[in-house]
Amino acid sequence: MLTILLLLFQAVGFLSSIHAILNTRTAQGAIAWVVSLNTLPVLTVPIYWVFGRSRFEGYVNALKDHDLLMAGEREAAHRSFQKFVLEEPDHFPEYRAICKLSLSPFLRGNRVHLLVDGRATYDDLEAGIRRAESYVLFQFYILRADRSGTRFMDLLAEKVSQGVSVHVLYDEIGSHQLPSAWLERYREKGIRVIPFNTTRGPRNRFQLNFRNHRKIVVVDGREAWIGGLNIGDEYLGADRRLSPWRDTHLRVEGPAALVAQSIFWSDWYWADQALLRHLSWQPQEAGGEDGGQDILVLGSGPADELETASLFFTTLINSARKRIWIATPYFVPDEATQVALSLALLRGVEVRILVPRRNDNWFVHHAALVYLSRFSTMGAMVHYYEEGFMHQKVVLVDDQVALVGTVNFDNRSFRLNFEVTGAVADRKFATEVEQMLRRDLARSTQMGRFELSRAPFMQRLKARACALLAPVL
Questions:
Q1: Is the omega angle on the peptide bond into residue 244 within 30 degrees of 0, that is, cis?
Q2: Does 284 lie in the same domain as 187?
Q3: What is the spatial distance between Cα 31 and Cα 333, in angstroms, rounded to a whole number?
């Protein structure tokens, strides 16, 4: 029996290595999988089918079916959006590439509000939900059954009693601690609450490595919230080890809110195979006399034909002429982003990288040292945030573009997670983000020139060993 089992693993390892040759993103990765699958199949076959895949199966086909079923509504919405579409700016040659990547252009006529930390974000979310008259779409990677989670679910149940339709979507891995009785209590009150269902479908049983990392709330198609905060008490400072928690969120009013709504709409269709037909798709201008702010809302994920997030951030970095400021809790950039940042430094762009001193991920904390060392020696300014855990995902490009969303600077966000980002092309908003980041820098320690090669042996070993896991971190 043992011999038969070993022969079976060997055969599966061989077949898996063929799959790896056909599907692995890089030649180096394919070689590594082929060697390991054929030499240690008992160990590596399960690992490969959980961690080795970079494409999410089935989502695109489901989305195509979804689009066909909603063709009439989609066409009507497309016509309504035309007057808000920003034409290609003369000073932004990368604009066309960005629009093709995002499948949505920058839209004018919006109002953007920067929300700093948990209390401001939660209070603003609560006020927005209380304004709901027709529906609320509520999606988070992490939803806790604690005081914060109960606060929002009770509020959503209250809105249901007022005749408002409520749909709640959560990631089953990120929210794995949710008690079924807690969820059922709110289902009985009329909230439609379901997991993203990453493993739905016969070909997706092993897609445990993918995550829906998005945080999206939409109220009546008029307002949308996106950013770094999930729903849990730790985001208000309840985690003693990581507190105070530093994070940033964004509220968007105007046509761009409907782009965030369309991302939720697609995720819901994958998760539930049900169409949300009661939503409003008529864009409403929120700009006022000054025309408002130009915003692009980008949805990205492992079901995309292209590596959307990686290409999007690479394109923006390549467009920088003055500065690139990056605030991220996890800095393990992929090859394309490393090249773009290196070129930015070579052409004299000011690069600042802000990461937390304390981190909730031991592997990422040590792996980041490899990349921070590389860019520090090239002239980048590396800052360690000292006051608790900094979880925000913010990028400032020159004086006119600022990004706030869910994307970390790592391979997981660039390739394995479903993410959402708000890119705001507005000088006033960029100045507001700059002022916020300067306050963060004042709470940080700037590293001197850091060379990992001169660090103690154990530190170098841990950093290099952890960096080997970069494709799945």
A1: yes
A2: yes
A3: 22
* Rounded-to-integer distance, Cα 209 and Cα 224, Å: 28
Helices (H), 131-255: 147-161, 180-188
233 classed as catalytic:
no
171, 220, 267, 426: the active-site residue: 220
pLDDT of residue 141: 97
- Report yes or no on 90 lying in a domain: no
Active-site annotation holds for 322: no
pLDDT score at 122: 98
User: Could you confirm whether 393 is annotated as catalytic?
Assistant: yes
Last residue of a domain, one of 292, 317, 346: 292
Which of 391, 410, 426, 440 is an active site residue? 391
426 a catalytic residue? no
Residue 414, C-beta contacts closer than 8 angstroms, at least 6 positions apart: 307, 309, 310, 313, 334, 337, 407
Query: Which tokens belong to 250?
Result: 């964004």
Its domain, for residue 359, covers 308-472
391 in catalytic set: yes
Residue 75 pLDDT = 64
Out of 393, 410, 426, 440, the active site residue is 393
pLDDT at 473: 61
Phi, psi of 424 (to 5 degrees): -110, 120
User: Tell me, what's the pLDDT at 62?
Assistant: 57
Q: Mean pLDDT for each consecutive 10-residue tract of the chain (473 residues)?
A: 85 83 71 81 78 69 53 65 77 74 84 96 98 98 97 98 97 93 97 88 66 96 97 94 95 95 92 88 82 90 88 93 97 94 97 95 90 94 96 95 96 91 94 98 91 85 84 64
pLDDT value, residue 289: 67
Known catalytic residue at 100: no
Task: Spot the catalytic one: 66, 159, 215, 462.
Answer: 215
pLDDT at 296: 92
Catalytic residue among 213, 249, 365, 383: 213
Q: So what's the pLDDT on residue 94?
A: 75
Whether residue 125 is contained in a domain is answered as: yes
The verdict on 363 and 426 lying in the same domain is yes
State the CB neighbour count (10 A cutoff) for residue 133. Answer: 11
Strand 409-410 vs strand 323-327: parallel, antiparallel, or unpaired?
A: unpaired
Catalytic residue among 267, 294, 304, 398: 398
